[in-house]
């Protein structure tokens, strides 16, 4: 009952973690505003939530456009009432070596993953400061803590979200006028979503893309449950759903040389397996 009637706006809400979070928030009594480019999928999810007794609206939004992000947040508040939370979830990744990246590719992924998050969070923060309460959530990643070979743009954009989220969290906590506005960053491990399909479509000639092994994969519902739990507690900080991964990445930060060896071997093995597979066809 803690979250009953407290609206949340979610970008990237048409599938994956965004859609699972929308359903989990709706089950907790939160009115939900769904934003993404695929309005048909958004509307289908909103209809599902409404039929189940919840409240949801679908709003077309391309987070690569600052004006659409602001419009999404403002329309969400107009339709559902003052927002309690915003979840900047939209993002994507692709595979390519650093030496082959061009500026247009870098500009686009940073625009969607980082700027799209910031452009969504800014207008929500304006609302939260007026009410004196609220909750900002950035969908970062476990790879925000380490540079991933062939995925530098993705891991860098997630690190930007992580760093801005931490800075914002500390800034809000330091000011008596905003200390009741929480800020969280989510750090999922491999999640069973469309990420790998989209990454493959974005990565011409990719050789490393492979779905995360099942033993190292979580469902979007696992991430969504953790998010709702944090919202209910009204507590900021990092949201992790895998303690072993968090511990391993802490070790990688403490021993970067060892992490380099492990990641190099991982890449070599994947390239070898892919070469063997290609040679048999």
Describe this structure in words.
The N and C termini lie far apart (57 Å). The protein contains 9 helices and 9 strands. Helices cover 53% and strands 14% of the residues. The protein is of the alpha/beta class and 281 residues long. The model has no long low-confidence stretch (mean pLDDT 90). The radius of gyration is 19 Å and the shape is globular.
Number of helices: 9
Question: Biggest β-sheet, characterized?
Answer: 7 strands, parallel
Proportion of strand residues = 5-15%
Return residue spans where pLDDT drops below 50 for at least 5 consecutive residues: none
Round the mean pLDDT to the nearest integer and report it.
Answer: 90
CATH topology: Rossmann fold
Q: Under the CATH scheme, which class?
A: Alpha Beta
CATH architectural designation: 3-Layer(aba) Sandwich
List the helices and strands and how they pair.
Elements: E1 8-11, H1 16-27, E2 32-36, H2 39-51, E3 56-60, H3 66-80, E4 85-88, H4 103-131, E5 134-139, H5 152-174, E6 181-187, E7 190-191, H6 195-202, E8 217-218, H7 220-233, E9 237-240, H8 243-254, H9 256-279
Helix pairs in contact: 1-7, 3-4, 4-5, 8-9
Supply the key terms:
alpha/beta; seven-stranded parallel β-sheet; 281 residues; globular; two-stranded parallel sheet
Summarize the structure.
Helix content is 53%, strand content 14%. By secondary structure, it is of the alpha/beta class.
